[in-house]
Amino acid sequence: MGQRLRKLVSSLVVFGVVAAAAGWFLTKPEPWPASHWDGLGAPDPANGSLIFSAGGCVSCHATPGASGDAKLVLAGGLPLKSPFGTFHVPNISPDETAGIGGWTLAQFGDAMTRGVGSKGEHLYPSFPYGSYARMTAKDVNDLFGYIKTLPKSANVAAGHDLPFPFNIRLSLGGWKLLFFTDKPRVTIDASDPKIARGQYLVEGPGHCGECHTPRNALGGFEAGLWLAGAPNPEGEGRIPNITPGSKSIGAWSAGDIASYLETGFTPEFDSVGGSMVEVQQNMAKLPAADREAIAAYLKAIPAQE
Q1: For residue range 148-160, what is the model confidence (pLDDT) as tens digits?
Q2: In the chain, how long is the greatest CA-to-CA distance?
Q3: What burial class does residue 46 get, using C-beta atoms within 10 Å of its C-beta: 0-12 exposed, 13-18 middle, 19+ buried?
Q4: CB-based contacts of 54, cutoff 8 Å, min separation 6
Q5: Tens digit of pLDDT for each residue in 91-114?
Q6: Which of 102, 210, 240, 269 has the fewest CB atoms within 10 Å around its CB?
């Protein structure tokens, strides 16, 4: 009997080790191979500036309350409250110690598009790498080049304040296994270059779905409800449905949408409000063709009531 028990215990131990190894293999951080970032050449800061605006980087990474040129100091520190705890936005200025000035392009690119930190750790999806995963290597390179031209800040942002078990980064591998993808969010006819460009901007650097798409209990996007509206992450009201099925925005023409992104005024002569103010100000810095592409995409996606 004792020998059978020892065999059973030994089998369970072996099974546990194998299961743990398999779990680690399936959920370990997966940066790009180094070759992914080879051959890109010198970054184009002008394009990097446009990607910076499309991504709304200042909205989260600028010092809270900053205005004017001070918003280009990406000192971090903004607290982001969520059902999982409070995240604190990091310093991504070119400071070599407090910011990302000492990072390589591969480290920056893996953080942006793979959710892998500079030390090879999983990053929390409060940083929208689930959207940035669609960005091209060229745009990532240009963005990194532009950020390196901005002022440095020695501010050290606070760490995240997360309760157990959300403070265990290894669990993020499981989250990525369930929800992380670099595939398009919706299936549409993107043979029109304008719609294809709009899809890239909205689903990628613009990360519009991060606020406009509802999430499940684990923080993943609800399947089949792309851009259908969601609770306001700031706690009050709702982020609107921006699909063609919306009772308000759905009636807008593509021209109305493009004009709204440029001017901040709706077809009803109302003005942009709330957190969308800063988004609109960022979109106004894009070329008119990009705003028109975003509008064309938003008119082409499946309607959600």
Answers
A1: 999 999 999 888 9
A2: 84
A3: exposed
A4: 201, 205, 206, 282, 283, 286, 290
A5: 999 999 999 999 999 999 999 999
A6: 269
Q: Which of 148, 91, 282 is nearest to 294 (CA)?
A: 282
CATH, domain range 193-300: 1.10.760
Measured in degrees and rounded to the nearest 5, phi and psi for residue 124 equal: -75, 140
What residue ranges do the domains of the chain occupy?
Answer: 34-179, 193-300
Question: How many residues are given for the chain?
Answer: 305
First to last CA, the chain: 65
* CB-count exposure of residue 87 (10 Å: 0-12, 13-18, 19+): buried
pLDDT at 5 over 50: no
Q: Which two tokens stand for residue 206?
A: 């613009």
Cis-peptide into 151, omega within 30 deg = no
> Mean pLDDT across the chain, nearest whole number?
89
* Rounded alpha-carbon distances, angstroms, from residue 6 to 2, 17, 18, 61: 6, 16, 18, 56
Cβ neighbour number for residue 141 with a 10 Å cutoff:
22
